[in-house]
Amino acid sequence: MSLAELETPVMDVESTCWVCGSRNLTLAKAGTLPDDLGADAFRITDKDYGATADIYRCGDCGFLECPDLPDVLDFYADMDDDGYEDTRDQRALQAGRLVKQLARAKPSGRLLDVGAGSGILVNEALRAGYEAVGIEPSIALQKRAAAAGLPVKPGVLPDPNLTGPFDCVTLVDVIEHVPDPVGLLRDISAVLADDGVCLLVTPDVKSLAARLMGWRWWHFRIAHIGYFDRTTLTAAIEAAGLEVQTISRPTWYFPASYLAERVLAYAPRWLRPPVPKFLDRLTVPLNLFDSYTVLCRRKRH
């Protein structure tokens, strides 16, 4: 059964589509938020798959959003994630791969990483010769970056202390977390050099994996409040004054133990054996073709 067939025809939300502005929103999935919702639910490594706020579908463009949960910035400011740091080495492999992809379009210059976490991609960009800086809302993750000597500033865009032009802006697994994705892309366009490039990564809600898993897909999570497919992502990019150059599928790197824990999260608790410690030492490259890497530029007039 498809996601569309599971939708409930309710249209009582006081909101508009975050991509196209339509008021034609229909409840697609009832939310399952805990009563004590806190910053832990917004951790990067959270594995409570299928738990979300109410998800509404736009009847005009198809975008899926959670308009009842727009004020998430305080959760991110308070969020810390030890599991994220435990997989730092593997995440650095993925960040390095993205930097190499970016370098084919813009091999040097000033780089801004938006939603920089503890500075993993910033570090890889510095190693590749970029003049790199990041910005991050999580107080704890920003402090981890600063403690490592990485130039990651606290906050979000727009920021008066981060003025362009930047030759490159990276936005890796961020746009699905914000209630105004077009506004964020406009803020990026405003600091991007005329010939600059933006590299964006986000899940694909119409991927084969998403269709097979339904509402149990691993990207249906409380922290994700906007769900893009190729059409809605392109529409958001163009609405912000940018244009798509290339679209590809990213490869991730994880400890085998990390992947095993997430597979077991789908099993009943009594069927979850301990994950062998030796799996910590094995790194697995993974591309499930359920995310996009998009390279875009400012529109040429």
Please name the defining characteristics of this protein.
single chain; 301 residues; alpha/beta; Rossmann fold; seven-stranded mixed sheet; four-stranded antiparallel sheet; 27% helix; globular; disordered N terminus
In short:
With 301 residues, the chain is of the alpha/beta class. It has a domain at 74-202 and 241-298: Vaccinia Virus protein VP39 (Rossmann fold), CATH 3.40.50.
Description:
The protein is of the alpha/beta class and 301 residues long. It has a domain at 74-202 and 241-298: Vaccinia Virus protein VP39 (Rossmann fold, 3-Layer(aba) Sandwich), CATH 3.40.50. The chain has helices at 73-78, 82-86, 88-103, 120-127, 139-147, 181-191, 208-213, 230-239, 256-264; strands at residues 25-29, 55-58, 64-65, 110-114, 131-136, 152-154, 166-172, 192-203, 226-227, 242-248, 252-255, 283-286, 291-298. The strands form three sheets. The protein has a seven-stranded mixed beta sheet, with helices on both faces. A four-stranded antiparallel beta sheet has the order 1-2-3-9, with no helix packed on it.
Give the SSE map:
Blueprint lengths: L24 E5 L25 E4 L5 E2 L7 H6 L3 H5 L1 H16 L6 E5 L5 H8 L3 E6 L2 H9 L4 E3 L11 E7 L8 H11 E12 L4 H6 L12 E2 L2 H10 L2 E7 L3 E4 H9 L18 E4 L4 E8 L3
Parallel strand pairs: 4-5, 4-7, 5-6, 7-8
Antiparallel strand pairs: 1-2, 2-3, 3-9, 8-13, 10-13, 11-12
Helix pairs in contact: 3-4
How is the main sheet built?
Answer: 7 strands, mixed
Q: How many strands?
A: 13
**Count of runs of 4 or more consecutive helical residues:** 9
Q: What is the H level of CATH, i.e. the homologous superfamily of the domain at 74-202 and 241-298?
A: Vaccinia Virus protein VP39
